Each structure stands twice: as structure tokens, then as C-alpha cells.
Hydroxyneurosporene synthase (CrtC)
Amino acid sequence: MVKIVDHGTWPLRDEDEGAHPVGVEPLWSESVYLDFTTQDGSIAGYIRLGLYPNWNRAWYWACLVGKDRQTVLLADNHATLPGPDLVVKGEGYRATHEVTLPMRSFRLTLNAEAAAVLDDPAQAYADTAGARTTSLEFDLEWKTVGGVYPYGFIPRYEIPCEVAGVIRVGDEEIPFSGHGERDHSWGERDWWQVSWLWSSGRLDDGTFFHGMRANVGFEMPWPCFTVPPDGVLDHREGFTATSEFGENGFPVQSWLAVPGAPLTVVPVSFAPVAMTSPDGAIAHFPRALCRFEAADGRSGHGWTEWHQPPGWRGHEWR
């Protein structure tokens, strides 16, 4: 039986894998993330479906990256809201999202005729209409490893997973086997107000980890967990992070204070997106496949995001 860590202020049930009642806030949203990477970081990607019913749209992002690979990116911030079946259809693409066993497994398929091939990932912040394109297909399944982790202060849960399936990009077919994380959240989220860092990965001894902190102007017991090789999810608090940024606001390096596993984070390949608010404000989202180096010599790969709303450099990244 999959263990659900019980420390939240709200109960988590199998039914939470489905859709939730829509709130009245204009920026109320429901979000599903799915990411994946091989252990060596040679192939990786992520998918995000964000539903904005009070804004009458969905966001759909999907990408493929890897060491020595160009970023392949599909980013549609004007997608039609899908129905309860979460079948997303946009210009030249179709995607399905299915909880095959609540809290235990999830299957994704994507068939995109023309994802952008980016020579420079920063192109994602501009119009990619003139970029070279390629077809992109995913047929992947996420299977839970170690347990389910609900946040204690917002309705959100994270699930470390083994990931397997098939990827096709252009004429290349890639049998995939690796690891990743999926999460599900709902409630009001204003992407144009607060910066944050979110990170998850797996080290070469089999240890999964996750941590998140937002820059809200005061300290909190920011959430994190590890899943050691014995498979028992260990929830802790006290996650902190510091980051150094370079050109285009892309992070150069970060240092994560995961209790019991301090980590150095080096971005390997970026798949960023930009988001425009209803009143025209622009936020940047440099998400990246990263290599993690633990202080004790372990290493691994996973994903990190450094969300950057307008004026983000005025926020404290410590």
C-alpha cells in the first residue's frame, strides 16, 4: 500500500487525484506537473497542465532536453480548457492525462506535430513562431516510489516516481527508463507576485529528494522530503536555498540545504517559458534539468525551477 505522509492541515484522499471545485479567485487554478530524467541526464523532460477556468484558458507545456541536446519545447498559454477527462487539444497537438491507479500510477500521452527546436533556450521568452520545428511524442507512465507527500500549508502533493515508456522526437525513437516526480495542486496562484525555488531529483544511491521555498519576506518551515534506498519517505522541514544568476536571469548554480543531504545544483539544460498576466505583466520561468552533487560524494539528476515574477531581482534569494 502506498504511504501518505500525514502532517498536513487538510486530509489527502484518493479522490484528490481528480478535479476540485473551482474557487472564486480570478487566478484560481488546478495544476498537474510531470517530469522525468534518465539517471545520467542524457534524456529528460517535463509536462505541465494548468487549468484557469475563471480566465477561460489552460496552459500546456511539454519539453524534451538532455546533455548535448537542443531544447524541444511546446508552450501553449491559450489552450482550450479540457473537460473532466483532461484530454487537451491545441493547434497541432493532442495530449491525454490519466490516473490509472490513484496515488500509484499515472499515464501521459502527447502527440505534437510541431514543437519548437531552440538553438538558445532564451528564445522561449520571445515569439518562437519562426523557430525550426519537429514532431514530439510521449507515451510515459509514472509509478509511485516510497509514498505521497502533501504540503502542510497549501493543497498540493508531490510523488516521487519511476518513469518508463517511449519517446519519439522527429525520426528518433527512444525507449525510456528513469525517474521523476509528479505533483498536483489547486487554489489561487499569482505567478506575477512571488518568486520561488522548487527542486526534486534522485541520487545515484537511489535516494529521492524534494524541496521548495518561496521568497515571501519571512522564514517558514519550508517543506522537503527524502526517500532513501529502503523506500520509506522521510518528511522534514527546514529546507533553504541560495542561488547565483547570470545572463537572461538564468541560474548558474544553487545550493540546497536539504536536511541530511546538502546539495550543489548545476543546470544542464533549460526549458523555460514566459507567462503574461491578464493585465500584461510578464513573468519568466527558467526550469532546468540539473545535476546534483551531494556533500558526501553522491550525485544525480532531476529538475529545478526558479520562478521570476516582475521585479524578481528585488526579492531575497537566500
